[in-house]
Every structure is written in structure tokens, then in C-alpha cells.
Design a protein that fits this description.
By secondary structure, the protein is of the alpha+beta class. The chain is 17% helix and 28% strand. A hairpin with a 5-residue loop joins strand 18 and strand 19. InterPro entries: MetalloPept_cat_dom_sf.
């Protein structure tokens, strides 16, 4: 059956749009590489689900090509298909949509949780991917153009509304290997910054919305792709306390001044969280060196002889006693700064190092069980490494490593291959460097951070 266009409001019945006829390609939205971190964008990386990378098996040490996602593939698909509108109808093509999260552009009278951060919208790349193993020529396709349709044009716009297939052909294609062992490949046609997605002013999204893509021929309109846009009528706030700590030389003020911009515009904004430095509280331990424990702490700091535990335990104990941050629970009991039950995250910028460690987010065991705490330590060697800073703060907001099993982590990947913030900089088994900048949060991590007890709803 064919489906006539019903304007810009999306298909009234997606089953009528989903034709039985075979498609030659699917269409995918991608983030320009230089815009990573500027807004929330998560998509299924090829290497996560196809055997592209050579990995080391932890138990055997054997090297083999595998997908980077470890575990039940249905869990991986759920990251992208859960709450998707039309992508499940493309399941036979193994289609998974990308997800976009942008702040609503609102006046305070409409919603105080808005921001001008994304008021001009975001431009995305468009990838037309031929089906794996398809060797037909795109120039011979029955389809002549793509059409882009917003599920709610009164709140979410897309421009242009259509583009010619010839635009893709004229730029040629790249060959993407998706199975190195069996030498399977795919042709990808890419248009850079080709599509503008923009929220309408004072119209936050109260539910997830969609930009659907249709391939148009002389007598048909077939669903070939989708971008999911995360609801943004609820946004969030993290109150951060920056504590430049002095044991000897202290912290260069420029190191702390440049941190706030990165935290606000290139990290937690991906999860619709406004990470704001609530206050800066310099902490000079030398003022309290009559305390024998602090005197010992300073001596170890000057010799760079602290262990991770002694560095974190000592600074937390000192700040609980002498710092400005005083917190109580609902019953009036005094809380340590590292205990859950208050709404601040303390970031200690330290002027000493621990060998092999740029930062640490010490856990909270005050209840007798493991819990993510509210304290982050950034050592001297990590002060200019904002990837480490965001990685450790994310731990304090309840996000585990992507390669470690835990109660909060049903999504497990091989270590050291991705651009995800919660990955490591090196690959397990070989020690090879991770070739990517660790700057992206996955969609499931957005949700984890939004639910952390220290996060405010705006």
C-alpha cells in the first residue's frame, strides 16, 4: 500500500507508510565531530554492534574481532529503541535511531529551566547508508528525494523539509567495513551539516518527539529513518562547589576560571543538566597545620606520597572540620560532605600528584554499603584535563564505568575504544591508547545523572 503525504504532522498510521517493498538504504542523523559535547547526542556506533575492532578477551587473553558491546544485544538496542516512535517498524533493517537532547529556549515566565544555549537549533550530518551487502548503484534507485517530517511542528522544526538523492550521489561515498573477519562492508553517502533541528521559542517538549525520514519515489513514500528528540519540559541543575586547595604552591586561578565554561557548555548539558559553580571556596591547609593529621597530610602531599585513599579521606575529614560546607539531614544529623543527603558536589583542585592518577571520586560507605559520594578530587596532573574532571564528577552523579558490571550498569563495553566520558584512556590487554576524545554521554547515562539525589529539578 502507498501512503499519501499528510503535510508536516507525520504519518497518521505508520503501518501504512511501512511498505513491504525492499529498501536499498536507511538514513541516519549524526553529530558533526567538532560539536561533540555541545548538546546531547547519542547514536549506535558501528563498532558497538559489529565485529570491527580487535579486542582482548579478559579471561583467555585471546585477540579477536568483536562488537564492543558485551552482553545481550537486546539491551543495547533498548538504549535507542525504548520510547522511539517509528524506528521499531524498521527492525528488519536492524535500524536504531539517534537521540538528540537540546535545552528549550524559554523566557522565565514560561519556564525557568530553559536556556539560550540552543536557541538557534543544531545542524546535523545526514548519512544515507546502503544496506550491508547491497551492491546496487544509488543512481539507479527508484527514489528521487528524502522528506523530513516533524512529529510536532508547533514545537519542533526541521529544515530543509526535503533534499534530493542526487545531492548524496554527487559527493561520492565512503566504504565502511562492518565485519573485518568476513570482509563485509557498506556504502555510506554523507552530507555535512545538512539539516537544522530547532525548538520553537517558549514551546518546551512535554514528550519525546521525532523527525521521520521518508524516501519518495513516483508512486510511494517509504519510511527510511528517524531522529528521536528528547523531551525537555523538565531540565535539571547541579550545584558545584569548587575548592582550590593549597598544601604548598596552590592552584593557578586560571585553572579554575576555565572549568565552569566546560562544565556548563560541553559536558552535563548533554543530559539537560545545568552544571553551575555555586561558589568557590579556597581551602589553605597550612592555616590548620597545628592539627597533626593535617600536618601529616601536607607533608605527604609535598612528597607526592599519598595513596588514593589517604588523599581523599584526609581532605574530606579536614573540610568537614574546617571548611565552609556544613550539612544536615532531615533529622538534623550532621552529614559529611561526601554523604548523600545534601545537594552539593565538592570538587577539590589539588596542588599535588599521585602517580598514575589524575582524579578520583571516593565512594561513600557511611551506610555500610557502596554508594557514589558527593566529592571529587582532581590532582595537579589532571587540572588541565577536563575529560578527567567530567569523568569524576559523573561518578559522583551515579554513573559507573562503561566496562564494569554494577547494579547501575546493564550496558557493558570493552574498555578503551570509545568517545564515551566513562571509558578509559587505554585499552585492556594491550595498553594501547584510546584513539578518541572522551566527551560523550550515552542516553542511558543522561537518565542516571538526572535521577541522582544531588540533582535539582528546575
Amino acid at each position: 500500500m502507498s501512503q499519501k503525504s499528510n503535510g508536516n504532522t507525520g504519518p497518521s498510521d505508520p503501518f501504512k507508510v511501512l511498505r513491504i517493498s525492499r529498501r536499498e538504504f536507511t538514513v541516519h542523523f549524526r553529530q558533526p565531530t567538532d560539536m561533540a559535547g555541545r548538546y546531547g547526542f547519542d547514536y549506535p556506533r558501528d563498532a558497538d554492534r559489529y565485529p570491527i575492532e580487535e579486542v582482548t578477551e579478559p579471561t583467555t587473553g585471546k585477540r579477536t574481532h568483536k562488537a564492543l558491546f558485551r552482553g545481550n544485544l537486546s539491551n543495547f538496542k533498548d538504549i535507542y529503541l525504548k520510547n522511539a516512535m517509528y524506528s521499531p517498524f524498521l527492525h528488519k533493517y536492524n535500524y536504531l535511531p539517534a537521540w538528540l537532547a537540546i535545552f528549550p529556549y524559554t523566557t522565565n515566565s514560561v519556564y525557568r529551566g530553559g536556556s539560550s544555549m540552543h536557541k538557534d537549533g543544531v545542524k546535523l550530518d545526514i548519512e544515507l547508508q546502503q544496506l550491508i551487502g547491497d551492491t546496487s548503484k544509488l543512481s539507479a534507485s527508484k527514489y528521487t528525494k528524502l522528506e523530513f517530517v516533524s512529529s510536532n511542528p508547533s514545537k519542533l522544526t526541521v529544515s530543509p523539509s526535503s533534499m534530493s538523492i542526487k545531492d548524496f550521489i554527487s559527493r561520492g561515498h565512503k566504504t565502511t567495513v562492518v565485519d573485518r573477519a568476513n570482509k563485509k562492508a557498506r556504502k555510506d553517502y554523507i552530507l555535512k551539516r545538512a539539516i537544522l533541528i530547532k525548538g520553537v521559542k517558549n514551546q518546551p517538549l512535554s514528550k519525546h518527539e521525532s523527525i521521520t525520514v521518508y524516501a519518495i519515489s513516483a508512486n510511494s513514500k517509504d519510511l527510511v529513518g528517524e531522529l528521536m528528540v528528547h523531551k525537555n519540559s523538565q531540565t535539571y541543575k547541579a550545584d558545584l562547589v569548587l575548592v582550590p586547595t593549597k598544601t604548598s604552591t596552590g592552584i593557578n586561578k586560571k585553572a579554575s576560571e576555565s572549568i565552569e565554561w566546560y562544565l556548563k557548555y560541553k559536558s552535563f548539558n548533554q543530559a539537560l543538566i545545568r552544571a553551575e559553580i555555586k561558589t568557590e571556596e579556597p581551602f589553605d591547609l597550612n592555616k590548620f597545620d597545628t592539627n597533626t593529621d593535617i600536618e601529616s597530610y601536607i607533608k605527604r602531599a609535598k612528597k607526592n606520597s599519598h595513596t588514593p585513599k589517604s588523599a581523599s579521606d584526609g581532605i574530606i575529614t579536614a573540610y568537614d572540620k574546617y571548611g565552609l560546607g556544613k550539612h544536615e539531614d532531615k533529622s538534623g544529623n550532621i552529614l559529611s560532605i561526601n554523604q548523600k543527603g545534601h545537594k552539593k558536589t565538592y570538587i577539590f583542585l589539588l596542588d599535588f600528584d599521585i602517580t598514575g592518577l589524575n582524579g578520583r571520586a571516593p565512594p561513600d560507605y557511611s551506610t555500610g554499603k557502596f554508594s557514589f559520594g558527593n566529592v571529587v578530587l582532581i590532582f595537579k596532573s589532571g587540572l588541565s584535563n577536563y575529560e578527567t574532571l567530567v569523568h569524576e564528577i559523573a561518578h559522583s552523579l551515579g554513573v559507573p564505568h562503561i566496562f564494569e558490571p554494577s547494579f547501575a550498569n546493564q550496558y557493558k563495553f570493552y574498555q578503551g575504544f570509545s568517545d564515551k566520558v566513562m571509558d578509559y584512556t587505554w585499552q585492556l590487554g594491550t595498553g594501547s591508547d584510546n584513539p578518541n576524545s572522551r566527551i560523550s554521554f550515552a542516553r542511558y547515562q543522561w537518565n542516571l545523572m538526572q535521577k541522582d539525589p544531588s540533582i535539582y529539578k528546575l
